[in-house]
Structures are given as structure tokens and as C-alpha cells.
Amino acid sequence: MSGRQPRGKAAARVEREDRSDAKRKALRTFMAETDRTPTSWATEAGLPTPNAIYNFLNGHTRMLSLSTLDRLAKAANATVAEIMGEAPISSRQALVIPVTVQAASGQWRPRYEVPGRADENFAIPPPLEIDEAVLVTDDHANGFYHPGTVVAIVGFGTPGVRPLANGDRVLVHRKNDSGKHEVTVRQIQVEDDGGVKLVFASHNKAHVGQIAMKQWPYDGGWWDSEGMRVQIRGRVVMASILEDK
User: Where is this region: Disordered (predicted)?
Assistant: First the structure.
């Protein structure tokens, strides 16, 4: 018996490690499918730091605590079983919405929405709940997304949506005095002095323009900036390349 017990303990340890590795893989898959990083997800969930997630993914801990798992799942509008790979995300029906908005820096259009092809739709995998899908049509956000990328936007009217935070990518809608509309993807940048700006992630000198925010925390309303009306439509929660038809 004394010779078998160590082997049994070793086998049990290997089995536990295999289960932990499977859950790490499932968590990485969930983050990839919902366009999350450990840092962005920790911020969504209200965790003080992303260290618990990184420690788990890097194998320093065997499992996330139950309280951390609950907070991560709630922030992602999912179940713990879904984010841990114990239940398929596809068990919920995907949401298919039309792509009716295009984001392009410096392109001023007569209306906010731009009719797309009749077959131009975007399937949003559960558990995401979004308000609109937007096609990036130029390289204004080439530090974020390439042309042809569709970004999924969650608006401020969505139940349970968290407040905007530093580093969030957002959809910005501007109207000029001629009544024309510009739509861009920008990033929230909180300065050391407390000022807040909407910036591009681009090395193109034509895209260095910044928009100063006059509301922070942001409440979803319009504000004036350099003779234009500005509004943040919502936060980017997912991005994917739209397949050619």
C-alpha cells in the first residue's frame, strides 16, 4: 500500500493541474471571443487590480476565488460556467444586427447612419448585449482596428452598463454647424491634472486631433467643442473582421 499511495497522490495532482489548465484555456478563449484583456475585464468587474487574473492564467494559482469569478461573470453578463468552459457560450442564441454606421475620421455625412448592403450583418456571440455595430472604413484608428473591422457598441441605456473609465475605446459622434455627422473610434485618456480627452491611437499626423471632454464622469449627453456638438455613443466591447460577401 505504501508504494501505491504516492502514485495515487501524484495522479490526483496531475488531474487537478489538467483541470486548471483546461479552465485557463477556457478563460483565454472567452476573453478572445468577447474582446477582453485581464486589465479591461478587471476594470469592468470593479477589481482593484488584474493580478488575480494574471496569476491564474500564468499558473501561479490553481483557481480564481469564487468572489472574483462571480464579479467577472456579472461584468461579462455571463455565468461562471460559461467563462470557465463548463457550459458552451453558444447555448444562448447569437444576436445578429445590421451594420448601419461607418466610422471614418474627417468624413462628414448628411446623417449618422449609412445604409449598408442588405446582407451586411454582424453576429454577436452571447453573452454580449449590444446596441449597434459600426464598420471602421479608414485607418483613423489604426492603432486599434484596421479598415474592414466591425466594432460592437454597448450604449448607456443598456441595463447594468458600467461607467466609462480611462483607456476605454468609445464611439464618438460629432455634428458640425452644417448639420453633418462624423463618427470615429477614440480612446478615453485621463490626464494627470484630471482633464479628460478623446484621442486616436494613430501615428498619422492628420489624426492627432484631440477632443476635450467637459463631462466626467460622463452621463451620455452632448457637449460643445470647437464649434461642434459631441457625444459618446457607447463603449466598444468587441471587434471582428466582417467577412466579404
Answer: 1-23
